[in-house]
Write a structure and sequence with these properties.
Elements: E1 2-8, H1 14-22, H2 30-35, E2 42-47, E3 53-58, H3 66-73, E4 78-84, H4 91-102, E5 108-113, H5 120-134, E6 143-146, H6 155-168, E7 179-181, E8 184-188, E9 192-198, E10 204-205, E11 209-213, E12 217-226, E13 229-231, E14 233-234, E15 239-245, E16 257-259, E17 267-276, E18 284-285, E19 288-294, E20 297-305, E21 310-311, E22 316-327, E23 334-339, E24 342-351, H7 362-373, H8 376-385, E25 390-391, H9 392-399, H10 403-415, E26 419-422, E27 428-431, H11 432-452, E28 459-460, H12 461-468, H13 472-484, E29 488-490, E30 494-497, H14 506-520, H15 534-543, E31 546-548, E32 554-556, H16 557-570, H17 579-586, H18 590-603, E33 606-609, E34 612-615
Parallel strand pairs: 1-3, 1-4, 4-5, 5-6
Antiparallel strand pairs: 2-3, 7-16, 8-9, 9-15, 10-14, 11-12, 11-16, 12-13, 12-15, 17-22, 17-24, 18-21, 19-20, 19-23, 20-22, 23-24, 25-27, 26-27, 28-30, 29-30, 31-32, 33-34
Length: 616
Amino acid sequence: MFVVGTAGHVDHGKSTLIQALTGINPDRLREEKSRGMTIELGFAWLELPSGGEISIVDVPGHERFIKNMLMGAGGVDVALLVVAADEGVMPQTREHVAILDLLGIETGVVVMTKKDLVDQDWLDLVTLDVHESLEGTSLEHAEVVAVSAENGDGLDELRLVLDNLIGSLPPHQSTGHPRLPVDRSFTISGFGAVVTGTLADGSLKTGQEVEILPSGLKARIRSLQVHEESFDQVGPGTRLAVNLSGIDHADIQRGDLITNVNWLETSTAFDATFRVIRDAPRPVRHNHKVTLFVGTREVPATIRVLEGDQITAGNSGWVQLRTQEHVPVVRGDSFVVRDTENTLGGGQVLATNAPRRKRNDTENISRLKTIASGSNEDITFNALTGIEPATLPQISGASSSNMSEVEKAVTVLASEGRVKRLGEDASYVVSTSGWERFTNLAVETLSKFHKSYPLRQGMPLQDFRGQLKLKTAPFNAVSDALKSDEIIATNEATVRIHYYCPVLSEAQASEASGYLNLIAEDRYSPSTEHPVNIEILRYLAERGDVVWISGDIVYPADTYEEMESKIIASGSDGQEVTITSVRELFGSSRKYTLAVLEHMDSKGLTRRTGDVRFVR
């Protein structure tokens, strides 16, 4: 299915035209009907002569409601530019055309309304003015159709023109990830939360769990409706209403995005191409404060000009937009920016979650040019380097490519030696240079640790993960690969450089031997005096010579194992284990007995219930 969107100056008859074409009044609000002026987005649908059906989005034309117009312009396949024959091209006509041009809407028709109010000579003059106004824009080749909504003259011709335009459009492509920018959120008694929008990419189906971004809230699709008819599944390009369960409509706002769970990471900075419109009242300067419109979202932002200090009217450049709120965008998304009451320009997202770029840097500019016009492998590689290590779905989201494209690109990149697959199931990908950085960081981090603590078996795994600044899943993949490459070695709790093995000096070995003899003198109640260096004691514990069960109580390993075994045997067949029973076993004080039992509790060998314990 395809979506047709109106555009044009206020009072040029957009809503009247839609009602004449479809029989549906797109103005929903009482105020709109009483004032005869569209304020909010309106919706209708039309069956074409060929039998196909299209959705229609009607936008307000008044300059005060340009923000609402921008909310409805995204997701439009065909523009219906409305110009009143008795007035011709007006300021909002030009601004709407500029917005359609920035959004890359290349298919459209100009509808000259109020044909019945002018003669043919005037109509020809206005038509010439329209063609001149559209020169150099995405709609410069649009056909002009003159109509009268009052008497129906020209409406059949318009339906045929729309039918031909829709028939010429290629089918919507799907990346596999549905994205529904929300333009309305409301509730229906007995049904709950309902949202509407135009589905970009992927498909939605009833019963599916979805995520609402940027909030991250989850919901489930109860039902789907297109033009008041229920469907089990809908595809990209469809104008639809979604009934959601598990969430209140107040928790979903215009500008939110409905999508698959756990694939899209919102951004507060993205790199982009940028073009300033010809009629912009001022250039776009570095650090220009603007309002960003993307999808149906409106958010304050700052433009960082990456090449030069400004971009002048009619010219293009490379920018980074930094937003005050999280925005869910992917590569290829079109956007528009305004400041005060003027549309300045817009462009396309190139890289999401972008780090702060160095300005006027040839390497950065070259990278952006590659993303803008490079091969599938180049696009995948550049998306990867901003988020590595990453899974294929994460790369798909960052590059706005479908999974098949990403899989093919990664296979080629791996064969060329530009990327490396990580993890037991090779689910993570990292660039070769990125892998070198991880390797160097791992060796540097562990070398410093071994130098500071030469007697320790290794660095705690969680501390090591913190130094690599990785979440658990990617850390495990990196760690597995580092072990496979014999860079590191690990046990349950620590990590070390693969070849590293702590060794006591002769003096330290003598000190350790003396301490082991000391705590062996009274096996079940070892001395709590520790005339030994704390690092030597830790070394003995990590090597397994002793069991350090509390701050000052350390047992020889064989003694502790014996005690643990006897305590477990005493509690067989469900017998209670008490402090008294354990004291009787070993003739030790309450202090030692309680420390041993609490240590067994922590290991999960015993379960405490009140003052007694049971062997698990």
